[in-house]
Write a structure and sequence with these properties.
Oligomer: single chain
Shape: elongated
Mean pLDDT: 83
Strand order of the largest sheet: 1-2
Helix content: 55-70%
Low-confidence stretches: 62-67
Structural class: mainly alpha
Distance between the termini: 30 Å
Number of helices: 10
Radius of gyration: 24 Å
Strand content: under 5%
Order of helices and strands: HHEEHHHHHHHH
């Protein structure tokens, strides 16, 4: 069930790849002229930027050292080029709006309005909510197992997949954290961290899907399933970070693992008598509908809310359904084991 959640992510990464590269806004002659003038003067219209008074190593080109931005403001990593691109984009989109034109993409992205230096505020907010919901789901799962269900004589829960869901929760929270960071400011480091966290989560959830759907409880068998997949995912993450951030390859890897999970959970829900199997179907159907938000790409409303942000929003109720199933599964398996022991 938790693995199915990442199918949405793999599709989102797939559609993200198609948007990378040259965009209509990049080729706009007025936008290009604005960029050239800004990079020379450091100003767009009447607005000038401190970044443009410093070289790439942070030394002032003209003016005293105290004109530098404070360290506490440098976290956002905006430099002269990025500020010029943003404000030229804003100026050009305002001209386009007055002429009755529609928004266009710049450098593969829709024109968003910054909010407190945050690049995509809606996506950041929804990612933060998903992070909080994952934490809530994890805590309620922990409390249920350790304080409401009976425990084994060695004080361990009866549910055989407890440790796996704990790892899943940590990886899920890690992903949503870096998703929020990347949408706050998208540059090479945050992008790599976001993609690495996503691949790690998809890879582990694939392992979890196989172990739970096929009811693999023997430790040796679990190791035989997990070891090659962990080695593959680790190698892929290292490749993305230290050799080449290959969007196309990453899309294929995520799609294969995502579709495999979708099929496994779908077949499992069809043949099992699990009382909560309807939640698996609800999740899979809801997830498929959410993917349509990535297909139906539209400009951000008021410069804030776009299709990708709504995809992030769709993950909020789906995360609740996911953890609801996990708690039901823990209760079902615990009661089943207790009945066998009587």
């Amino acid at each position: 069930m938790g693995g199915s959640n990442l199918i949405l992510l793999s599709f989102a990464l797939c559609f993200l790849v198609t948007s990378l590269g040259a965009s209509e806004g990049d080729a706009d002659p007025i936008y290009k002229v604005c960029l050239e003038e800004c990079e020379k003067s450091g100003c767009v219209g009447g607005k000038c930027f401190q970044h443009c008074n410093f070289s790439s190593d942070g030394k002032p080109i003209d003016g005293p050292w105290y004109l530098q931005e404070p360290l506490y403001q440098k976290w956002k990593q905006w430099d002269c080029g990025s500020d010029c691109r943003y404000h030229c984009m804003v100026a050009r989109e305002e001209e386009r709006r007055k002429l009755g034109g529609k928004p266009v993409k710049y450098h593969g992205k829709w024109p968003f309005k910054r909010v407190y230096a945050i690049q995509e505020p809606a996506a950041v907010a929804f990612s933060a909510i998903s992070l909080a919901l994952q934490f809530h789901g994890w805590i309620t799962f922990f409390i249920l197992l350790n304080y409401k269900f009976p425990l084994r004589p060695d004080k361990r829960p009866y549910y055989e997949y407890t440790g796996l869901w704990h790892i899943y929760a940590i990886l899920a929270m890690n992903f949503w954290f870096w998703s929020a960071v990347c949408h706050s400011r998208d540059f090479e480091l945050t992008e790599k961290l976001d993609y690495s966290a996503a691949v790690a989560l998809i890879g582990f959830s694939f392992i979890l899907t196989i172990l739970r759907a096929f009811n693999v409880r023997d430790e040796a068998s679990r190791v035989m399933v997990a070891a090659p997949l962990i080695a593959f995912v680790t190698t892929h993450i290292l490749y993305l970070n230290f050799y080449k951030l290959d969007y196309g390859l990453n899309m294929k890897v995520c799609m294969v693992m995502g579709v495999a999970q979708l099929l496994i959970w779908g077949i499992w829900a069809s043949v099992t008598s699990h009382p909560a199997r309807w939640k698996v179907w609800l999740f899979n159907v809801g997830g498929t509908l959410a993917v349509l938000l990535e297909v139906y790409d539209f400009p951000p409303y008021k410069g804030i809310l776009d299709a990708h942000a709504l995809w992030h929003a769709a993950n909020i109720p789906l995360a609740y359904v996911c953890w609801s199933f996990v708690r039901d599964d823990a209760e079902f398996r615990t009661l089943t084991l207790l009945k066998k022991m009587k």
